[in-house]
Specification:
Blueprint (H helix, E strand, L loop, with lengths): L6 E12 L7 E12 L3 E5 L6 H8 L7 E6 L2 E2 L5 H11 E5 L10 H13 L4 H13 L15 H13 L5 E5 L7 H18 L2 E5 L3 H5 L3 E6 L2 E7 L1
Parallel strand pairs: 3-8, 3-9, 6-7, 7-8
Antiparallel strand pairs: 1-2, 1-4, 4-5, 9-10
Helix pairs in contact: 3-4, 3-5, 4-5, 5-6
C-alpha cells in the first residue's frame, strides 16, 4: 500500500538490527511507525544511544531496515536496488550536518552545485543560476567565488544549507546543524530552515540535543531505547 499523497515520509514498523544471526545480534530500533508531511517542521530528540543516528540513516536512505517499510513520496524503498535508492536520495533528500563537509578546493558556488554535478554532470547555466540564487537567499551572493577556508563557520554552514536545497528536495534532514555555531548564528540558520519549509513546502526534520531548538519546532518526536515515546505538536 502506497503512502498517502500528503506524506513525504511514512514509516511502518521499521526495525533495525545489527550482527544478525550472531550471538551479539542487537535490535536498535523496535517497530518505528511515523508520518512526516510536507509542511512539517519537526525535532527528533532523545538521549545518546536512543537510536537517533540509526533512524536518521534509515530516513536518509543511507541504510536499510531489517524489516518494515519506509515510503518516500509514496515509493516503497526497502527492496530498492542501490542505484535507484541513490538516485532517489540525491534528488529528493537534502542533508545538513554539524560539520559542513565542504570541499576545500571548490568555491562556494561549486560546493552548492555538487549534488547537481553528481546527478547530471557539468552544470548548465540554469543550474548555476539556481545555485547563485540560493546563495543570495542565504545572504552569501557576494561570497560565491570564495573558498570555504575564506568563510566563517556560520557562512560555511549557510553554504551547506544552500547545497542541501539546490535539488529542491522534499525532505531536509539536519543532524545537529547548529552544534558548532554561536547562539546568534544558530538562530539565523534555524530561520533559514523555517523560510524554506514555508516557501517550498520542504519538510524539515532536525536532530538536536538543544532544547531551545526543539522547543521552537512545530513538532517533537522523542526516541528512547529505539522506540518513539513522544510524537506531538508543540
Amino acid at each position: 500500500m502506497a503512502a498517502p499523497a500528503e506524506a513525504v515520509l511514512r514509516l511502518e514498523q521499521l526495525r533495525k538490527s545489527y550482527n544478525i544471526g550472531q550471538p551479539t545480534e542487537t535490535e536498535v530500533l523496535h517497530g518505528i511507525s511515523l508520518t512526516v508531511g510536507h509542511q512539517d517542521f519537526a525535532a527528533l530528540v532523545g538521549p545518546s544511544g536512543s537510536g537517533k543516528s540509526t533512524l536518521l540513516n534509515l530516513l536518509g536512505l543511507l541504510d536499510q531496515p531489517t524489516s518494515g517499510e519506509l515510503y518516500l513520496l509514496g515509493q516503497a524503498t526497502r527492496t530498492m536496488d542501490d542505484a535507484t535508492r541513490t538516485a532517489l536520495r540525491g534528488s529528493r533528500i537534502g542533508f545538513v550536518f554539524q560539520f559542513h563537509h565542504l570541499i576545500q578546493a571548490f568555491s562556494a558556488i561549486d560546493n552548492v552545485l555538487m549534488p547537481l554535478m553528481l546527478a547530471h554532470g557539468k552544470p548548465d547555466d540554469e543550474a548555476r543560476e539556481r545555485a547563485r540564487s540560493l546563495l543570495a537567499e542565504v545572504g552569501l551572493e557576494q561570497f560565491a567565488d570564495k573558498k570555504p577556508g575564506e568563510l566563517s563557520g556560520g557562512q560555511q554552514q549557510r553554504v551547506a544549507i544552500a547545497r542541501a536545497l539546490v535539488t529542491r528536495p522534499a525532505l531536509l534532514l539536519a543532524d545537529e546543524p547548529t552544534g558548532n555555531l554561536d547562539t546568534r548564528t544558530a538562530a539565523s540558520v534555524f530561520e533559514l530552515f523555517r523560510k524554506f519549509n514555508r516557501q517550498y513546502g520542504c519538510a524539515v526534520l532536525v536532530v538536536t540535543h538543544d532544547p531551545r531548538l526543539s522547543a521552537v519546532c512545530d513538532r517533537t518526536i522523542a526516541l528512547v531505547d529505539g522506540r518513539i515515546v513522544e510524537n506531538q505538536d508543540s
